[in-house]
């Protein structure tokens, strides 16, 4: 891996840490949206937006939803927006598959907390990058992930490959991750790694910690394979293009 620096240790309680880096060319070829398209690029970490208690409540939402399915491999996802849920080697639509039983799994309070957390993360990203929160739109996929050390059964389970969000998903301009469990306490491995030319920079997950960054190739990254335990997180993604915006999930 060459030189590795820790950007955020699990033991730290970070108010705000931000590293500005030059923007890649990825945004130049796309339509620009005033007040939103990145002109300042970088990556930030904060433990001051979501409390540990809120992260535990959010993790319980993930645990309840994922208990209905789960991948045969090491990575399971739950997308409350589209209803996508890992089941064996495939995905099902949670809302169609379970119908009215969903009301027994999730509550209105769960969805209200999810919305509130999403809004606070959106506002923090806007503040740090000097853009307008109202010019940002939630985009897909926005999803819970549960990772463990089970071997991969399909390519969906291979979460550890280096990638660029803007290349993978197209619509992403800003990516955030809210961690819902603790590195070295709840799981081993599974650190988030930014792959820079001179060194790798890692973020050690901590419940309630938010890591956020511009989605272009200035932030090539990967997740280490989980060695033991279970790692929970939620990926919340934003676009500047209203045509790629999605609404908050609703309990039907």
Major sheet:
7 strands, antiparallel
The figure for the number of domains is: 1
Which regions are unreliable across 5 or more consecutive residues at pLDDT < 50?
none
CATH overall fold name: Jelly Rolls
The name of the CATH architecture is: Sandwich
* Approximate helicity band: 10-25%
Cα-atom radius of gyration: 17 Å
Keywords: Dioxygenase, Iron, Metal-binding, Oxidoreductase
GO cellular component, one term: membrane
Protein name: OGFD3 protein
Cofactor: L-ascorbate
What's the short story on this structure?
With 252 residues, this protein is α+β, with helices and mostly antiparallel strands. It has 5 helices and 16 strands.
Report on the structure:
This protein is of the alpha+beta class and 252 residues long. It has one domain (4-241): Jelly Rolls (Sandwich), CATH 2.60.120.620. The protein has helices at residues 52-66, 94-98, 102-105, 108-129, 165-169, and strands at residues 4-8, 17-21, 41-46, 70-71, 75-78, 84-88, 90-93, 137-147, 174-179, 187-189, 192-195, 200-203, 210-214, 221-223, 226-229, 231-239. The strands form four sheets. A seven-stranded antiparallel beta sheet has the order 2-3-13-9-16-8-5, with helices on one face. A four-stranded mixed beta sheet has the order 1-12-11-14, with no helix packed on it. Strand 6 (84-88) and strand 7 (90-93) form a beta hairpin.
What are the salient characteristics of this protein?
single chain, alpha+beta, Jelly Rolls, 4-stranded mixed β-sheet, 5 helices
